[in-house]
């Protein structure tokens, strides 16, 4: 039997004998999963190659299977849960920059991820982060087939509704998770999450006031684009680098 290295709502990922990750429809034969796989292949083909996206090796249209590079360190979510205590601050900041770079590239290509979270960011042997799983994504202006779930999606009734800003909200939650090792509002039920959101009672990143502000602005819908987020993070990184040199 081939080892199973991932299982999602509509796809099963196995490790091939050649060392590649092979994603096939799950449950097998399901029309929904087949449709999701075909759409995901279409998105990958549209995006082309980018260092912050997982690399696709082959698409078998007959079997509806995607062959991709294997990311040996698994998902960012699992890595944070297992190793949070020993992850350095520079490593966390690299992941944040890589996540922002990848999401910014998607948006320049007209793709909204709609399921952006640490579970859908994978790490290679060098701990380089790459975005994966486009089964819920959509081309800008079209309707998504899914979403990122509580903590990575604003509560109902929020003024954050465009695809771009939904991805930016999820980016804010992802940055929070990278810095703290846990989901925002961890241990809080959906109702309390909504109540706290409306009161702007956000969890703090106490050690990093400037990054805390960036995350809060993502949650508030204050950024019109991921490029704006990237600009603030790049500026913060440059200021920190100059302080380190001094």
UniProtKB/TrEMBL annotation:
InterPro entries: Kinase-like_dom_sf, Prot_kinase_dom, Ser/Thr_kinase_AS, Ser/Thr_Kinases-Pseudokinases
Any coiled-coil regions, as ranges: none
The entry's keywords: ATP-binding, Kinase, Nucleotide-binding, Transferase
Limits of the Protein kinase domain: 1-246
UniProt GO MF annotations: ATP binding; protein serine/threonine kinase activity
Designated name of the protein: Kinase-like protein
Organism: Aureobasidium pullulans
């Amino acid at each position: 039997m081939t080892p199973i290295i991932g299982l999602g709502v509509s796809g099963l990922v196995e490790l091939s004998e050649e060392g590649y990750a092979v994603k096939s429809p799950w449950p097998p034969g399901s029309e929904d999963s087949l449709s999701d796989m075909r759409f995901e292949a279409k998105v990958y083909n549209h995006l082309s190659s980018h260092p912050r996206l997982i690399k696709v090796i082959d698409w078998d249209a007959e079997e509806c299977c995607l062959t991709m590079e294997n990311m040996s360190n698994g998902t960012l979510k699992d890595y944070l849960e297992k190793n949070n205590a020993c992850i350095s601050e520079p490593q966390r900041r690299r992941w944040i920059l890589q996540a922002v770079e990848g999401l910014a590239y998607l948006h320049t290509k007209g793709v909204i991820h709609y399921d952006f979270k640490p579970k859908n960011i994978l790490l290679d042997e060098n701990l380089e982060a790459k975005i994966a799983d486009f089964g819920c994504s959509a081309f800008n202006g079209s309707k998504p087939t899914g979403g990122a779930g509580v903590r990575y999606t604003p509560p109902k009734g929020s003024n954050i509704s465009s695809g771009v800003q939904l991805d930016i909200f999820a980016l804010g939650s992802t940055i929070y998770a990278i810095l703290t090792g846990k989901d925002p509002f961890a241990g809080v039920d959906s109702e309390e999450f909504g109540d706290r959101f409306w009161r702007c009672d956000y969890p703090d990143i106490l050690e990093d006031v400037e990054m805390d502000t960036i995350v809060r602005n993502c949650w508030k819908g204050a950024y019109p684009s991921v490029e704006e987020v990237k600009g603030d993070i790049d500026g913060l990184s440059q200021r920190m680098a100059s302080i380190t040199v001094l």
